[in-house]
Write a structure and sequence with these properties.
Length: 492
Amino acid sequence: MHNGYSSHFNLVTAAHEVMVEHGFQPEYPAGTESQLAAIKMQMDKDEDPHLQDLRQLLWSSIDNDTSKDLDQIEWAEQLADGRIRILVAVADVDVRVGKGTVIDGHARSETTSVYTGVRVFPMLPTELSEGITSLNEQEDRLAMVVEFTVDATGTVADGKAYRALVRNHAQLAYPSVGAWLSGSGPAPEKVAALADLAAQLKLQDMAAQRMLDSRFQHGALDLETIETRPLMLAEEAVEIVRLEKNRATSLIEEFMVAANGVIARIFEQAGVASIRRVVRTPKRWDRIVELASGMGATLPAEPESKALNDFLLEQKRKDPDHFPDLSLAVVKLMGPGEYVLVRPNQDSPGHFGLAVQDYTHSTAPNRRFSDVVTQRLLKAWLAGTEPPYSVGDLDAISQHCTLMEDAARKVEREMQKRIAAVVLRPRIGEHFRAIVTGVNHYGTFVRTLDPHVDGMLVNAGKPGVRALDVGDRVTVTLASTDPERGFVDFTL
């Protein structure tokens, strides 16, 4: 067991060190400041008669209550035939960050912003991601607008994309909007003050619920994984707080899935090579089948998302308290997503968990380089010019994005463990309910359920202890913590 501990462990310093260890470059390169100065000068000269001016629409954003890098805003309109018209405006990062520039080179190397819980390491300088290219409230911004309609069955159609000038009229947060939409909380102050905004959000919610129901019918997985963040006090982590999913998070997720599908289909119909986001068929389907069997259900021998989701929905109805445990096990057994090059007239592997075949990443260019690339491909197609990237470029970028996203997950996971080691230190000797999340040659790993903390079982392989596998539920005792190495050790 690991017993090293520093009562004044600096989590922010540790986050920087872990970033470097996993191949990130937290410091921006020489030339960044001069490029930022040039970008600020360019803003005073923004004139384009071809842009649609949509600033008068009642756009709003919904994001985490701590988010400062706002990538998208939304607007909806009820049509006479019963369909709902949806517009998703995505920050135009490319117009500020030119391909091949210093800042672009850094973004291409990092590929993603990394959220460590104690500090954000943004892909783009905060002057851009939280300022010039963020769709901040009451600021005029250039954007790429993705438009589509949603009918009564949740079918998305009439997809198109174009450039526009927009203004975010209300920056809102998931917790308060979600509680209001579900009827479990009052309207947020901005919503209560503006009847048109309340009606706008209700219409967006109606469209999102239609799309969600449709995707469930096609086999999208109704998973309820749990995310956490540390509660900080005077720059020290004192508690681990659960982030709840709700109607507002579902609304934004549905709009993002639909918008990304629209862009993917535009590329497909235009014969444009692009980067897609895929989750392949689960490699450990046999273990998913075994888990279902242990709960009295039968899944087909070959992977089938519709059958899996029917099982998940039934388990959620029967045992909602333990549904997050089951969701976590299924997510682990499905494996991570990846970026792949899709050439013209080539079938995409699709996204097993979302039950969609056409899916790219285009809605978070402040946070992901793949989205910047997609934005540039889209703008070139709209302008009728040659794609800014060759097929070879796109293949190399997709592989690098997958590599760095995996590294980002490792950074975030290691920091979660360090944060947990700091927060849980006073609770050594306590018992916790847990679920097994991994078994490999390094050992057996678990996640406790309250609070949600990852750790290692240090006596899992000893004589007399039964063999464990992903998805098994166990009761564990906190044995020790070591923030410096990110160790949280449990015993059965």
